[in-house]
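dumping these here so i dont lose them again. two proteins, back to back, each one seq then structure tokens. dont judge the mess
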Amino acid sequence: MSRPVVQAILGIALLSAMDAIIKGAVARLPVLEIAFLRYLVGTAVMIVLLAIERPGWPSREAIVANGLRAVIVVITATSFFYALGQLPLAEVLILSFISPAVTVVFASLILGERIGPRVLASLAAGFAGVALIVWGGLSGGAGDRTSSLLGVAAVLVSAVGYSASNVLLRARAQRDPLVTIVAIQNIGPALILVGPAGWVWLPPSGSLWPALIAIGALGVAGHLLLARAYAAAEAARLAALDYTALIWAVLFGLVVFGEVPTLWAWCGAILIVGSAWTIARR
């Protein structure tokens, strides 16, 4: 395997571990507070890395472009964290796998990367998989149905934001130092979320702080690896690697939370992962 592929796979594994820790934390703290602390810890880590690597002050263009990406990151993260509190971990990850197909569309519109007619078929298959998972999640009571629908909607918002973020990452990775990109990716969201987090703030217990620090550290490490991967390879080529997170999601969900994916979830996963694989072979 090429170095960008290995970096992307390892980055996804670290972010999957972060997701599992977040799922445990959302039962005890508000989503906005967890998101703020995740990026606050990430900011502290990035300040140390900036002091070591000394990439220089970013240009105004870099601040504006990466600042826009920071806004997208906030929307992506908060919607995803919310979904983790509403749905099983594996289902959240499976639903998020529509992002490779969306990434290809954004890569074409923003980066001018060429796509073929199979992208439309891939999108249709991916959303058919989403429909199966939604259908399976509607078998519970009224409260369960509402939670399922809200969770699915949050994942879809997150998937679109994730795709846009990755495409913008590749666009900026050709111009800005990677450490600068990831630094703004943490500092920007921390500044954006400090106010909203203050509205819902609950003091974390002492036992929660190691988990919150781990969330921030894993987030920085995972995104640094992804930044290096997307700087060296096409966004559309790496996007399909996202489905390797399914292995980690099922493992963490089963071992940590005792969650077993339903038959509907597996059927939806086949369609969604199949669509991602089709894109990978383009």
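---- next one ----
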Amino acid sequence: MRICLLIPDGVGIRNYLYSDLLEILKKEGHQVVLWHSLDSQLSQLVENRLGIKLEQYQFEHKPNGILIQWLREAGRYARIRLNATKMNNSTILTNWSGAASSTKGKLLNKAAEWLGKRISTYKAIEVVESQGFRLLKRSDEMIDARNILEKIKPDLLFCTHQRVFSVTAAIQAAKSLGIPTATAIFSWDNLPKGRLPFRVDRYLVWSQYMKEELLNYYPEITENKISITGSPQFDFYFKKELLLSKQEFAEKYGLDLSKEWICFSGCDTFTSPNDPKFLRDVAEELVNEAGIQLLFRPVPVESIDRFSSVLNACPNIKLIPPKWVQGDHWGSFFPLFEDLQLLVNLAYHCKVVVNMGSTMALDFSVFGNVGLYLRYDHEGIRQDASVDTIYQFQHFRSMGDWKAVGYIYSKSEILKQVKTALENPDQIAPDRKLWFDKIVEPNPEKSSAIRIAEVFSSMANTKN
């Protein structure tokens, strides 16, 4: 069977090109075809690592027509408003940004808001979105996508990322040709944001919790279209061959073997514009602690220029740069396989990770290590980036009453919380494993890659 992986950007590469998925599919006798917009350097790296030659086609991101964009954004705005009311959480509204750089974009957003305010039910949203899909059938991008799919002749089309707008024509083209379609929800915070611009035959989710979220926010999607597979990004943490001894890791990155290591993991500029100030706070509070070394992993999809002054002023910060290739824009950034080993070992050897509400708390909890969330503001922060807003985001409600992470409410608490997390982690976050199991739902019998391959096989078999 021919399974086509549609890879619209670089962020999903580790899950589907670096995991065991391709090898599993190959062993089962499937042909894997890549339809992607990635740099040729990356596909060559993947082929060299796997020792196989991949059939590849170039995917071009093409904007939809203005009317299609209007209907899509109006539906999204209406869904965000309905979801905010349904979940009684006004922070869901922050996922809509009416900001745009161009006059055309500003007018489009205003028009989308005007229509979206007049849509009061999920059924009405479905009607509006279906009008956009109908218009897409007559578009040039739909015709081009059909032509490419007729060359590929896949038995299944799988899009690795659920929120990329320009993929919609490819999905609709596949449907028109009778090709089964699937996608995966990329991250644990994606669903409340209303970024699901296309509809497929099967949705791959991390857990029962995420399945229930999908049914809540998209009631038009039926339960039989959702498969719980976990996420391949967590498979790597269970691969013992990726782990280095503490001495090996220390030698490789120039770390002090005699100290306890804690990691400050950076956020992007939009999420945490004051990240450099937070990094400075942590460094200054730990500077006199002889038994602790502070490691800094910047967010991979941005330059570290905004941290330069802090790194120069605080020599006790050990910079551990991600091993990513940085392209011209966010979607063209991609990780090297070596970054997986780096991240696995950071999560294993650093007993504490400090950040502003990052998913990294889940990554580190795989090994029983503790996430500490910064929960105070610096002056001048915009309201939607304030901790009063951030920690009310819907995905944090997944913790319920559990103590899954620790919180730092002021700069003066940093040292105390770090030392407690190192010495008595269960005092800080006794429920961290419960939270991880709820969000990720790992299966000790089957990796996520195996479960995804099983879904692919069943879908392709059904079509045949």
